[in-house]
Amino acid sequence: MKHKTFFWFVLPSALAMLLFIFLPMVSIVIQSLHVSHEQVIVEVESCGPFGCRQSTTIDQEATEALRAAKPLGQFAGLTTYLDRGHLAVNEVGQAWDASQSWRAFGASMLNLPFYKAMAFTLTFTFVVTPLVIIFGFLIAVAVNSATKVIRGQLIFVSLLPMMITPLVGALILFWMVDARGIVGSLLQDISGDPNLSIKASTPLMWIMLMVYGVWHSAPFAFIVYYAGLQTVNTETLEAAMIDGATRAQRIRYVVVPHLLPLTTFIALMQLMDNFRVFEPIISFSASAHATSLSWAIFNDLGGETRQLSSAAATSVLTVIGIIILLTPVLIRTWRDFGRK
Amino acid sequence: MASKAHQKPVPLTIFITVVLGVWVVLAAFPFLWTLWGSFKVEGDFFSKANWAAALTGELTQVETGGQFTGNGYYGAWVEEEFWRAAWNSALVCLFVVTISLTLGTLGGYALSRSPYKYAFWFLIIALVFRALPQITLVSGYLPVFFEFNMWGHLPTAIVVLIAINQPFTLWMLHSFFKNIPQDLDESAMVDGCNRFQAFRHVIVPVMWPGVITTGLFSFLLAYNDFAVTTLLLNQENQTMIPKIGSFLGTTQTKGNVMFAVSAVVSVTAPLFVMILVFQRQIVSGLTAGAVKG
Q: Which of A290, A292, A339, B22 is most buried as measured by Cβ atoms within 10 A of its Cβ?
């Protein structure tokens, strides 16, 4: 295809991505380096019958004018990144000096909003991703050995948790594990504690969010593995059988190597998706116990006072996190391409 | 077909049956339970005394005089004007799907036919864009949208969702077009078509399976979105998912949590039908990227 034709064909897409993905990225970097203007304060001398008094008032007009002239705010350098809401350099230093043990240091780190969000995001990502792969594989093997007649229905049912809107799916589970819901009461019966409430306990909330994560994503791994199992070479399997391989050995040496590239693919997609965990935290009203980076941005942007610089700084840090996660994949793709 | 060698030992069969049974319950039961519960009153679905009240519906009987009640649906759709959100969702989905497919087919086709290195880099950049959490983009939009008075309107959200959708659409359609033999459009060009005519007359008629599959996922992205639509739309232009989000804040305190339950069931129903009708396409779409590596 000629360069010129290629250019015209991809132009609309490229333009859309340039304007609404690339430029916003530039914009958050710039925003994160600025903070909004302080209000312009003027001193006025008001003279009355009892003499003159100095008072300070906010000059609304001048403030408006300044904001209109420089909508970005004033340049602040890296201060937003270093403040308490983000990397909290001073606080981390103090905690380091003050705490006697690693444990105490960790505890004081978890009081800082950014590290709290980071801790949950990373735990969620690296717990949910392997579990999704394991459960997806189990379900795929099970469905694959079910009778052909019911496979269609099984796949239909399995797709439900994945295709459902994340906010809605999380709500459905949340209502069930509510202290007054069916699973919640069951848990109270099992544990023998009538006041057991997931909403009130941080560890239970973390577990519940991860259970939701696995429930939501396992079908994706299942579908990919299931498709992979359809293309396992039966001749190789039979050859292995003739050579005396047991069932376990056949799975270990024929099926698993065949599915390995798929695992890389699933892991990559899951790492990307789990890193942006957000909706379940809203649905479970979990923010007191668990926050994620995406939630922190949402929290800054929503509400009455939109803290744009703070949100922008968290966004930049999140993007850096994503890039670190993606680097191995990008390097591999680059090498593969170089070999061709 | 099943030869003796393929037969499984009994413990394995039992294990597989158990896995399947547990999974089917885990996957389907929450939906059935919520559907059932949405026709009860709050006192039954969230019963302080006994969870089984949701089955027997004692309070529903007392409060409404019947075993089932549509009060939750009436409250959500009529009192809280959920129909408005449903209409907004329909508009957003319609425009996002048609426009992003139009852009995506053109781009995806070109990417699949270009032998040059820049096409590869284009795809890699799209992959990186795909990985960015959408909410990070939103914090980039807000100041600009406020500045130009674009905030709050449906078209703004539509344009943003189209753009966010592009990386995925391009990847998906790129791999579908790769599977359409290149000889097809090249022979049309030998016969005197230019590139666009070849695309229009030769490729377009055979591309529909791929386009439908990609369209399904574009639809899901637009329909399921929470972050973008919550932060970019004002109250009256809200789509369904942010509307449910706002139910959580306001109605839960008023004791109208059943509004939210009914709204959740209403949102799930179209997805249910979609999976029922397009199951095959969804499965092929999910595996398209993977199986080819």
A: A292
Note the ipTM here: 0.90
Q: Which residue in A24, A223, A311 is closest to B283 by CB distance?
A: A223
Range scoring the smallest mean pLDDT among A51-65, A190-204, B69-83, B169-183: A51-65
- The tokens for A46 are 């008001």
| Chain B residues touching residue A185 (CB < 8 angstroms) | 50-51
Q: Which of B136, B194, B259 has the highest number of chain A CBs within 10 A, making it the mutation to test binding with A?
A: B136
Domain A127-287, architecture per CATH: Orthogonal Bundle (1.10)
B16 and A141: CB-CB below 8 Å?
yes
pLDDT band of residue A339 (cuts 50, 70, 90) is: low
Choose among A88, A340, A24: nearest CA to B138.
A24
- Shortest Cα distance from B65 to chain A (angstroms)? 23
Mean per-residue pLDDT, A319-336: 84
Tell me which residue in A156, A164, A261 faces B268 most closely, judged by beta carbons: A164
- Sorted by where each begins, the domain ranges of chain A are 127-287
CB contact under 8 A, B291 and A154: no
- Measured N-to-C along each axis, helices B257-291 and B208-224 cross at an angle, to the nearest 10 degrees, of 140
- The verdict on a CB contact (< 8 Å) between A181 and B46 is yes
Residues B163, B284: one domain?
yes
My answer on whether B21 and B99 are in the same domain is no
Domain CATH code at residue B143: 1.10.3720.10
**Torsion of the alpha carbons at A74, A78, A84 and A89, rounded to the nearest 10:** -150
Q: Do A154 and B24 touch (CB under 8 A)?
A: yes
Residues B147, B90: one domain?
Answer: yes
For residue B261, the enclosing domain spans: 80-291
Same domain, B61 and B86: no
Q: Looking at the complex, report in whole angstroms how far the Cα of residue A217 sits from the nearest Cα belonging to chain B.
A: 11
> Identity (one letter) of the amino acid at A215?
W
Chain-wide mean pLDDT for chain B?
Answer: 87
pTM of the model as a whole: 0.89
Which DSSP state fits B237? G
Last residue of a domain, one of B43, B74, B105: B74
The pLDDT of B263-269, averaged and rounded, is: 95
Query: Are residues B111 and B64 part of one domain?
Result: no
Contact (CB, 8 A) for B66 and B57: no
Q: How many CB atoms lie within 10 A of CB A99?
A: 15
pLDDT at B3 over 70: no
Mean pLDDT to the nearest integer, A94-110: 85
Q: Collect all residues of chain A within an 8 Å Cβ-Cβ radius of residue B244.
A: 167-168, 171
Residue A120 CB contacts under 8 Å (≥ 6 apart), including other chains: A206, A209, A277, A290, A291, A292
Angle CA A163–A167–A169, to nearest 5: 50
- Shared domain for B61 and B85, answered yes or no, is no
pLDDT tens for A4-48 read: 999 999 999 999 999 999 999 999 999 999 887 777 777 777 777
Number of domains in chain B: 2
CA A102/CA A165 separation, integer angstroms: 40
Residue B146 sits in the same domain as residue B278: yes
Residue A110 DSSP SS3: coil
pLDDT score at B274: 94
A332 is written with which tokens?
Answer: 């591999």
